[in-house]
């Protein structure tokens, strides 16, 4: 018996009116993988993300999670299945403390998952939520900030809090939308190390959209390059960087390599 991929997209398409934002996209994220997704502005990265996260319903095609068809399911169903996401902007409650932010996130927690023994099953009571919050805060390095308001944290720590909130739902796979955006170089190194530890220590598979080339190339096992909603390359960081179609997509227009 073979284990199904963590995520599998089959001929996934999304049209907005006449615009083909994502066209016949097929790929899999394997267990234990950090999978990078890059492409010039407007390539369809965020749309693809939102199709997997249940924000948009695809026009065609399928999304499978652990071999189960989740096509067209809503964000709540997707989150409960263990597909977590982080947002490009630090998506926290600025007037509430870190502890309160984590508690809110815990209330979305699903009832099963690989982190069950570490951060507890569905948080049934406040004591469990508190314990989970402390464990998650320790994992991302926010133990000393539990009683500070989200808005008072430096931006780098706000983004760490965004990751911590996603972790409170015990995801088996985490979709990360530009985790390094807005971070200084020291914070980027810390975020990169955290992403690697999520995979190495927690066994969370990562689908990573990231503009910082150095970071995405150093972290990813494989990278999918898309342009105008279509795949132009898929392979190791070394292979895609050397691919003429990738170089053309980035150098052919006025796009940054992103
Ligand atoms: N909700 C929407 N309605 C209409 N068009 C959209 C919507 N979201 C994205 N698009 C369009 O789809 C294309 C892909 O956008 P997007 O997925 O945001 O690209 P990326 O994240 O790679 O920059 C763009 O042309 C964008 O304008
Ligand atoms: Mg985008």
From TrEMBL:
GO terms for molecular function: ATP binding. The keyword Cell wall biogenesis/degradation does not apply. It comes from the Bacteria. SUPFAM superfamilies: P-loop containing nucleoside triphosphate hydrolases. Pfam families: ABC_tran, BCA_ABC_TP_C. Gene3D superfamilies: P-loop containing nucleotide triphosphate hydrolases. PROSITE patterns: ABC_TRANSPORTER_2. This is Branched-chain amino acid transport system ATP-binding protein.
């Amino acid at each position: 018996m073979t284990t199904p991929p963590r995520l599998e997209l089959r001929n996934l398409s999304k049209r907005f009116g006449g615009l083909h934002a994502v066209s016949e996209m097929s790929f899999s994220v394997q267990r234990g993988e950090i999978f990078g997704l890059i492409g010039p502005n407007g390539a369809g990265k965020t749309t693809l993300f939102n199709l997997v996260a249940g924000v948009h319903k695809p026009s065609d095609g399928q999304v499978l999670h652990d071999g189960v068809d989740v096509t067209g399911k809503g964000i709540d169903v997707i989150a409960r299945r263990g597909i977590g996401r982080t947002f490009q902007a630090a998506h926290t409650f600025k007037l509430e403390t870190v502890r309160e932010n984590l508690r809110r996130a815990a209330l979305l927690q699903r009832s099963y998952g690989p982190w069950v023994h570490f951060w507890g099953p569905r948080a049934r009571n406040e004591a469990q939520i508190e314990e989970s919050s402390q464990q998650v805060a320790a994992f991302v390095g926010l133990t000393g900030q539990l009683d500070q308001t989200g808005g008072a944290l430096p931006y780098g720590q706000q983004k760490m809090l965004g990751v911590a909130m996603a972790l409170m739902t015990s995801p088996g796979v985490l979709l990360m939308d530009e985790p390094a955006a807005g971070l200084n170089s020291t914070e980027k190194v810390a975020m990169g190390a955290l992403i690697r530890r999520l995979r190495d220590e927690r066994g969370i598979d990562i689908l990573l959209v990231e503009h910082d080339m150095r970071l995405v190339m150093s972290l990813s096992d494989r990278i999918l390059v898309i342009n105008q909603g279509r795949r132009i390359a898929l392979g190791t960081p070394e292979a895609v960087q050397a691919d003429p179609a990738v170089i053309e997509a980035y150098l052919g227009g006025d796009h940054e390599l992103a």
